[in-house]
Amino acid sequence: MRNKPYTETGISRVPCQKCGKPSKHQWQICATGNQWSGVCVECDIALNKLVLEFMGLPKYLGSIYAATQRTLHNPRNSKKSKTSRGLHLTQKGT
Ligand SMILES: [Zn+2]
């Protein structure tokens, strides 16, 4: 955890706060003094679903987010153009 947000390169070197895998995202909450923490793709998806449920927001938003993130961070898709990524928004995760 740290006070300033990590850079895109920097976050990949930070272990996930929950499981220790390489982080792809970061988050902060007031209870930890707004410290930035790394979180891997799967833990980020779980965290988003948890917050959606807590706030009473539609669960389908979590499914769409999960599919998008799994497509975006799937190594098989890393060489595709950025515009093709948007086409997978409503597809199920692989
Ligand atoms: Zn994790």
Q: Taking strands numbered 1, 2, ... along the chain, how are they ordered across the largest sheet?
A: 1-2
Biggest sheet: strands, sense, closure?
Answer: 2 strands, antiparallel
Unreliable stretches:
80-94
Shape: flat
SS-based class: mainly alpha
Question: Quick check: average pLDDT?
Answer: 85
Task: Briefly characterize the structure.
This protein has helices spanning 8-11, 41-54, 60-72, 82-85; strands spanning 25-27, 37-39. Helix 2 (41-54) packs antiparallel against helix 3.
Can you characterise this structure?
The structure is a single chain. This protein has 94 residues and is mostly helical. The chain has one domain (8-88). The chain has 4 helices and 2 strands, in the order αββααα. Helix 2 packs antiparallel against helix 3 (60-72). It is flat, with a radius of gyration of 14 Å. The termini are far apart. Residues 80-94 have low confidence and may be disordered. The protein binds zinc ion. Residues 16, 18-19, 21, 39-40, 42-43 line the site of zinc ion (ZN).
Core attributes:
single chain; 94 residues; mainly alpha; two-stranded antiparallel sheet; 4 helices; disordered C terminus; binds zinc ion
